Amino acid sequence: xxxxxxxxxxxxxxxxxxxDILPNEKLIGxxxxxxxxxxxxxxxxxEYREAVRRLRDMFLAKIPxxxxxxxxxxxxxxxxxxxxxxxxxxxxxxxxxxxYLQEKQNADFIQLxxxxxxxDRVLGLLSDPRRDHAPIRRKGLILGDxxxxxxxxxxxxxxxxxxxxxxxxxVLTSSxxxxxxxxxxxxxxxxxxxxxxxxxxxxxxxxxxxxxIPTPVSLTNEDDFTTPSSKAFQGLPRPTWNDRPVITVMKxxxxxxxxxxxxxxxxEFPKDLxxxxxxxxxxxxxxxxxxxxxxxxxxxxxxxxLCNISERSSYVAVTATPFANVFIxxxxxxxxxxxDFIHILPTPPAYIGAKKLFGDLDxxxxxxxxxxxxxxDELSSxxxxxxxxxxxxxxxxxCELNPQVAHxxxxxxxxxxxxxxxxxxxxxMLIHLSRFTAVQEQIADMINKYVGDIVSAxxxxxxxxxxxxxxxxxxxxxxxSAYGQTNGMSWQRVxxxxxxxxxxxxxxxxxxxxSKWSEINQVPINLxxxxxxxxxxxxxxxxxxxxxGLICSVFxxxxxxxxxxxxxxxxxxxxxxxxDLQRVWLTDQSxxxxxxxxxxxxxxxxxxxxxxxxxxxxxxFGLAIMKNPEK
Length: 631
Hints:
Layout: H1 3-18, H2 25-38, H3 46-59, E1 67-70, H4 81-86, H5 92-104, H6 109-123, E2 138-143, H7 150-163, E3 168-172, H8 177-192, H9 205-208, E4 217-218, E5 246-250, H10 254-264, E6 275-280, H11 298-309, E7 313-319, H12 323-326, E8 341-344, H13 354-358, E9 371-373, H14 376-380, H15 403-418, E10 427-432, H16 437-460, H17 467-480, H18 491-501, E11 505-510, H19 514-520, E12 532-537, E13 550-555, H20 562-567, E14 583-586, H21 588-613
Parallel strand pairs: 2-7, 2-8, 3-5, 3-6, 4-5, 6-7, 9-14, 10-12, 10-13, 11-12, 13-14
Antiparallel strand pairs: 1-8
Helix pairs in contact: 1-2, 1-3, 2-3, 5-7, 6-7, 10-11, 15-17, 15-18
């Protein structure tokens, strides 16, 4: 196909993507003819017909819509979104967010249409935000794959909710301040549109600037709600029907939630104000684990209270592992069971999850260099799979980094160089070998020393007379060149680029005691924009935390709980342009456990699709967990 026809296709693509109307074949043909005519092209040719075919495949593919179970039989709730759309309300924040995702996050037409359909479906199941309609409380659940875009989904939902009249949004994260701050940063970009320090426009703000779109007020920024610097403690008025929308991002912490509930539940707060509560990672801490006759657990009780402060509240649980959520007693009306709806997000074609990597109980997955086996016998002599928090490597005579972990680090350094266009991108490696902070710190020390030795070799001894360089050349040959994954780079070119990359390398310990270790090792607080980070940690790395450009992972843990295991799979997600460079090292048993966990979730989705066709409800939604044949 000629360059001019390629240009015509691109111009048509841009025009169709900017159009709010869903394209059809006639519209595609008409717009293509306009651009072809401007370029002097003949439309009565095979090239025109090929261009139409390409555009048709791009824009007329079936948009995945997900699966939804609903139950509106016991309430006076009725659909409200179609009426508001017919009234001509323009969702300006959503349009701005769409534009931001398309232009800055490279979201394609299919992704945006799927996001639009899913969030419209969920939004329409929330409480009616109109003041002249009777208030009602709603509870639901959004289920999506680990690292598949759930955060983007609820960011879109929040923007649409404000467009249609929601005045108060509460986002709940885990109990970790680092994860809360990570969520706050995402909300600053994708919802508020303002940088917290400079107050400059960022993210969606570049597309709302200059328009009559009010910027929501944030009750939280650098600090959580309970700190003296929190705006709420400086006399900020409670949200009302007539003021700008208000948002707060809080940890699931008893003190935090208790103070927030007390602050919000005051005479100044309209009890019929539309309030959206997003419970991110809702299977963590939110579910009541107390015995039936006992009072609910602290976090669960506080969330129940929060949901009841407004008569027009909508509680939306968000998770990748809903096993705890669907087993909440649906007979306890004040509890958090998603009685009104469960929406399962579609799995995007480009998503790399457990099934693609490991297969399930029916399929064993494709043979791929991506998944690599750890030699458990050899590794256990360095660090037993089951060990105590007092474990010391020096007592075991094993003060040097294990060769298998060292090999994985070598792979990471080479993959960072081989990844196309990665010079200005963040890249990362996950090293998860222990759940104990003291053991993690020892491992971080060994990794820091190993990386330091590699950097010295690259800077001062960049020839194969140095055993460290020789070993890395072997890794390049065996791990990447043997599979044709070098992107045309010779070893000499790789070696040269690794020398340039040494200033970008940083080891970071991620746990509750990491600040002292980071200070001793002079680790910068903020990540560089193109940092290549080796993250060492355990459970804190394994829930909710997003690692930019994660390309190599070492996972050496014995975890059998399906929901916990899937949450630890931080390497699931999207690897545009570098999926073949990804490497994950696990034990044979972990691979078997991931297959089992994958089978559970796939079974869950299959059940839900059948139930949707049969018109069944969340109350009827049960998951029969199969006996694990791998045990």
